[in-house]
Amino acid sequence: MTLLITWPDTGPETELRRTSDPAEIQAALAPVGVRFERWPVRDDVPADAEAGEVLAAYRNDVERLTAQESFTTVDVVSLHPADDPDWPVRAAAAREKFLREHTHDDDDEVRFFVSGSGVFYLHVDGEVHAVLCEKGDLLGVPRGTAHWFDMGTRPSFTAIRFFHEEEGWVGSFTGSPIAARFPDFDTISTEPAVCP
Predict the structure, then answer these.
(1) I need a labelling partner for 106 at 20 to 30 A (CA). Which of 43, 59, 147, 161 fits?
(2) Which of left, alpha, beta for 117 (phi over 0: left; psi -120 to 50: alpha)?
(3) Average pLDDT of the chain?
(4) Which residues make Cβ contacts (< 8 Å) with residue 98, sequence separation at least 6?
(5) DSSP states of the chain as a string?
(6) What confidence score (pLDDT) does residue 195 get?
(7) What contacts 24+ positions apart, CB below 8 Å, involve 6-9?
(8) How many angstroms separate the CA atoms of 119 and 134, rounded?
(9) pLDDT tens across 122-159, in order?
């Protein structure tokens, strides 16, 4: 289930917001320039579908967003558990790459989750917003926004990525250790949706 949790950036001891309501998530993130949308889910697209099949299934939505935002490159990234003995090493390396706070100087980070899930952490205006994105969620992080991403210790997701720049993903790491102070994907994905 999609979830937004907001804390002060001093640490997760004080929870400022927790909601699984898509309208509330969109309203909370819009003032900091973050785009959140829910797209209709295509149940006929397998979780491990090839990139061409994914893009064909979501062609109308991809074309609409590309026209609206003038994206030049669209691709599909996918990581799912496999029997391959090298998979745990590949998964850990992929996770590690995005766990440190970074920005993108020349592009937004826009992802649509076709399957699976991951948590985007947005560090904005003295707060950290953790957005657990799942199948059907689109999140757009504006260029220059400090953030990090956690796909968990057993990553399983397929996402469509949108870029304004042909180089694709280029991160500028801030050097801040902030990410280590907040709950990770594995913790957040098992928490209740609403405050007790």
Answers:
(1) 59
(2) beta
(3) 91
(4) 148, 149, 150, 151, 171
(5) --EEEEEETT-TTS--EEE--HHHHHHHHGGGT-EEEEPPP-TTS-TT--HHHHHHHTHHHHHHHHHHHT--EEEEEEE---S-TTHHHHHHHHHHHHSS-EE-SS--EEEEEEEEEEEEEEEETTEEEEEEEETTEEEEEPTT-EEEEE--SS--EEEEEEESSTT----EE----GGGGS--HHHHTTS-SS--
(6) 47
(7) 6/127, 6/128, 6/129, 6/130, 7/127, 7/128, 7/130, 7/182, 8/126, 8/127, 8/128, 9/123, 9/126, 9/127, 9/128, 9/178
(8) 9
(9) 999 999 999 999 999 999 999 999 999 999 999 999 99
**Can you give the pTM of this predicted structure?**
0.93
Amino acid 134 reads E
Assigned token pair, 166: 């042909």
CA-nearest of 15, 11, 9 to 193 is 15
Give the distance between the most distant pair of CA atoms in the chain: 46
Q: How big is the chain, counted in residues?
A: 196
Compute the distance between CA of residue 1 and CA of residue 132 in angstroms, rounded to an integer: 8
Confidence tier at 55 by pLDDT (50, 70, 90): very high
